[in-house]
Amino acid sequence: MAAEPVNVNGFQELARQALPKMYYDFFAGGAEDQYTLKENEEAFHRITIQPRILLDVSSIDLSTTVLGYNISMPIMIAPTARHKLANPSGEIATARAASACNTIMVYKRRDISAKLVQRAENNGYKAIVLTGDSPRHGRREADIKNKIIVPELKNLEGLLSTKIVTDGGSNLDALANWTRDPSFCWEDIGWLKSITKLPILIKGVLTQEDAMKALEVGVDAIIVSNHGARQLDYSPPTISVLEEVVHAVDGKVPVFLDGGVRRGTDIFKAMALGAQAVLVGRPVIYGLAAKGEYGVRRVLEMLKDELELAMSLSGCSSVKEITRSHVRTKHDHLLSML
C-alpha cells in the first residue's frame, strides 16, 4: 500500500501509477519543449519570503471574498477539463470536495455557446470564466505521440456532434480545432455580456496591455494564466507577470493567479504580489486520480494547512496582512545592488 503523501507533490506519482500513460501524459504535459511548464513552478522558487517576528499569530484567519462570496481560504479549483479521465466520478467528485469553477469555450456556432451559458445560469453557477488564450489548440506533443482518444463530451449531447474522424492522430486535437472560434476577440465580450447576468472572468491575461483591455470591455475579474503551460510555450510563468497585471488593474477588479501553485508558500507569495486568491489545477487532478474525492479534499487541506503555517511564521494573522513587503523578487535583488 502506497504511503500517504505528505504534500501535494506526492499525489503526482500516485496519479502516474493509477492512470493509463495516455491519460497521465494528457494531464501532466505542456506545450512543445515544456519550458513554460517547468518555469511555472521554478519562478516561485526565485521569490523569497521576508518574515516579521514577535507578532501575535495565535489565531490565523484565512477567509476572504471572491466576487462578493465568502470563502474559507484564498484557494480555488482552476477550470480544468475531462476529470472523468482521472476518475470515473469526474467533476462530481471534484465538486463534492470543493466548489469548482466553471469554464466554457466559445464555439464557432454562437447559438451553442449561448445555450451553454444559459444552462450554467439555470443550474446555479455564480460566474462564467472565459478562456481567452485558446483560439487554437496548443501543440502538446505527448498527446500527439500517444494518439490520445477521449470520450465524447456528454454536456454537448443534443447541441453538437463531437464525433471526429481523424487520420489516426489525436481526436482531442482535431475536436478542439474544429469547435473553437479563432475570430473571437475583445469586441465579442459585449455579446457574451448581453446573454448573461453572471459576472465574467477573463482567463489568460499575461500583460498590462491585455489587463487594461479587459477593463475597457468590462470584465468582472482577471485570471493571470498561461493555460497551465499547455498553449504557447515560452510564454512567461504566471507569477513573474502577476505584479505587472495588478499594477495595470489598479484595484478596479480582482486579480487571481493560476499556474505552478504547489505549496502554501506559493500562495503566500502570490497574495503578497497582489493576487486576491489562487487557482489550483493539476494537483487537484492528481488527487482525484489517486484517491478520488478524498484525494481532492486532501490536496486542498494540505495547501490550506501550509498557507496557515507560512502566515504564522511570517507574522500574518489574516490574509489582509500579507503585503508586498513580505516577499523579495529577482527584480528586487537587482535593484538592491544598484
Automatic annotation (TrEMBL):
EC numbers for this chain: 1.1.3.15
Principal cellular location given in the protein's record: other
InterPro entries in the cross-refs: Aldolase_TIM, Alpha-hydoxy_acid_DH_FMN, FMN-dep_DH, FMN_HAD, FMN_hydac_DH_AS
Active-site residues annotated for this sequence: 227
UniProt cross-references to Pfam families, sorted A to Z: FMN_dh (PF01070)
Keywords, comma-separated and alphabetical: Flavoprotein, FMN, Oxidoreductase, Peroxisome
Gene3D superfamilies, A to Z: Aldolase class I
Every FMN hydroxy acid dehydrogenase domain range: 1-332
Superkingdom: Eukaryota
Xref: CDD domains: alpha_hydroxyacid_oxid_FMN (cd02809)
Binding site for glyoxylate: 140, 227, 230
GO CC annotation terms, alphabetical: peroxisome
GO molecular function: (S)-2-hydroxy-acid oxidase activity; FMN binding
Enzyme class, first EC level, given as a word: oxidoreductase
Family designation: Belongs to the FMN-dependent alpha-hydroxy acid dehydrogenase family.
Name recorded for this polypeptide: (S)-2-hydroxy-acid oxidase
Organism: Herrania umbratica
